[in-house]
Amino acid sequence: MPHTMSRMGDVLAGFHAAWEFESDSVLIRYERGIRTPKLFQALGERRVPLSALQGVTLTPGRRGTVVLRAEPRPGADPLLEAAAGQLKEGNDPYRLVLPAERETLAEYYADELRGLLTESGPAEHHLVPAPEAPLHFKAYDAKATFDGAAVQFRWFWTGASSAKWKAGDQSFPVAELSGVEWRSPEVFEGHLRLLLPDATADPPAQPDQDPAAVVFGLGYGPVHESLPFAAAVLAAVRARGPVAAMQTAPARRDPADIAERIRHLGELHRAGLVTDEEFSVKKAELLAEL
Q1: CB within 8 A of 68, min separation 6: which ones?
Q2: Edge-to-edge, what's the strand order for the sheet holding 25-30?
Q3: End-to-end Cα spacing for the chain
Q4: CATH fold of 135-246, please?
Q5: What InterPro entries does the record tag this protein with (predicted)?
Q6: What one-character-per-residue DSSP string does 83-110 give?
Q7: Do 17 and 28 touch, CB atoms closer than 8 A?
Q8: Side-chain half-sphere CA neighbours of 35 within 13 A
Q9: Side-chain half-sphere of 85: how many Cα atoms within 13 Å?
Q10: N or C: which end of the chain has fewer CB within 10 A?
Q11: Residue 10: in which H helix or E strand, if any?
């Protein structure tokens, strides 16, 4: 008997989200209520092609609930690839929690959805859209921004190490990156590190000393901000074309911004964190950006 879940717009609503079933995809709309996980609110909605899924489960939940979960194929979703298994259960965007009395209805949709899935195993490329740029968030030691073409780290003088201040603000074109390493701020020493293709076999520097990384802290780099950021960068890296041969001229800085950076550099110099020579060299570099 052919499966009947081909009607457009069938909706199954649960706690914090609703799944709308289409002939070739599932549109997941997340609520924006105060009890909804912040990651779901940040995602808003996601259209998941059926080709990105390889299974469906229905299991008992807590406190009189059942949990419908779609199982994405490895590599199909840049968000889960960036998360690398670090998401807590409550932040899993593929779980739909429903009251136990709706178990029969949930089982119906699970069976229908299983019958439409034809793919399995690792996906050759991302199939679920990544969060859209521009994106930004505040880490403990920098403000990170991504405009779709390049990632920029602008150091905070109150949090950045002297090594990062000496290196100066960083800009990483997507074409120069090989990947992203995200470590959840909900575990010890969370960070976001950009991976470079020419990295040596030596162990990477500690994130607080690495100009290609920003570190998280209490209230800095929360999951709902830093993970979508990491996913967007990862998706851009995977989809990038060949490196362009031409180089663009560096953008000119706001004079007021340059003056503020020189003032902060002077404070580091007076505190003994920057030598006379380093102060002179970095000051000259900043003035050259005017």
Answers
A1: 12, 14, 19, 56, 57, 58, 95, 96, 98, 106, 109, 110
A2: 10-13, 17-21, 25-30, 45-49
A3: 71
A4: PH-domain like (2.30.29)
A5: DUF4429
A6: HTT---GGG-TTEEEEEGGGHHHHHHHH
A7: yes
A8: 3
A9: 1
A10: N
A11: strand 10-13
- pTM over 0.85, yes/no: no
Please say whether the dihedral angle defined by the alpha carbons of residues 84, 89, 90 and 94, taken in this order, is positive or negative: positive
Q: What angle do CA 202, 143, 242 make, to 5 degrees?
A: 60
Helix axes 276-288, 255-270, angle to 10 degrees: 180
274 token code pair: 């920057």
Instruction: Indicate the fold that domain 10-116 takes in CATH.
Output: PH-domain like (2.30.29)
Encoded tokens for 79: 């968000």
Whole-number Å distance between alpha carbons of 273 and 251: 28
For the chain, the domains span 10-116, 135-246, 249-290
Q: Would you call 231 helix, strand, or coil by DSSP?
A: helix
Q: How many residues does the chain have?
A: 290
Q: Do domains 10-116 and 135-246 have the same CATH topology?
A: yes
pLDDT tens-digit profile, the chain (290 residues):
344 554 556 999 999 999 999 999 999 999 988 899 999 999 999 999 999 999 999 999 999 999 999 999 999 999 999 999 999 999 999 999 999 999 999 999 999 999 999 999 999 999 999 999 999 999 999 999 999 999 999 999 889 999 999 999 999 999 999 999 999 998 767 999 999 987 655 667 899 999 999 999 989 999 999 999 999 999 999 998 444 333 333 445 567 666 767 776 777 778 776 677 777 767 776 677 66
Is the Cα torsion angle 65, 66, 71, 72 positive or negative in sign?
Answer: negative
